[in-house]
Amino acid sequence: MWYPGHIAKAKKSIKENLRAVNAVIELVDSRAPYSSRAYEYQELFKNKKRIIVFNKYDICDIKKTDLWIQKFKEKGYCVLATNLKSINIKNFLMKNVFTVIPETYGEKSAMVVGVPNVGKSTLINSLKGSRSAAVGNMPGITRGVQWVSVNERFRLLDTPGILFPEIYKKELSYKLALLGSLKVEETEAEEILEYFFEFIIKEYPHIIPQEHMKEEYPFGFFLSEYAKKRNFVKKGGEADIQRVCKSWLKEINDGKFIKATYESVDEYDDLMI
User: Can you give the pTM of this predicted structure?
Assistant: First the structure.
């Protein structure tokens, strides 16, 4: 769980360490480019060269996400789209990032920022060849800050996963939970999934079988059918809703249920970008 104290500590650490870098590499989840962005930190970053990496591009709705990418490029950002787990990250950084970062005393450096589970640890681990920045699905797993060398002239500063006070706004917290960026309590999972279900009906109606929509409570019927298909059934034939919610949410986090983008660029004012 993230509390205001955690958030303030992370922000203070980032502010103190910004002076040591030439640029900021901001990772966002391609499925929610606004909600997964460090938008509360933009004032801190304004005097630094900024590179925005749209990670998990392979599991988003490319048509929707490309509109976000276009908007960021129009604002003057260097924007890259990829899936960090499927590329040679060192080559990617040297070809696309090193070339655009300013140099100081023959060296280039950048701070890596992003919300939990957006891909920072995947990036850092690939360079270190170790588990020192442990990769996992537990939000906030990276502790403190650490320097990692790409080569003798290029260094990255890793930071803790960052979240904002606004995570207490329900829609934002729902989206972060669907990305795997926010830990979900068992009591919250069903509510989050019902939000997701309503979103799917509106934006991707072909995903839900039409016969489900004829039921009195389509969401409940879908959960029951999901339970039957995976044998998540208690004694007596009752659906094990807790297991259903945990399994389905994991599928959504991993992009295995649907390749979707949860927000449209025209929903947000230009000032937010």
Answer: 0.88
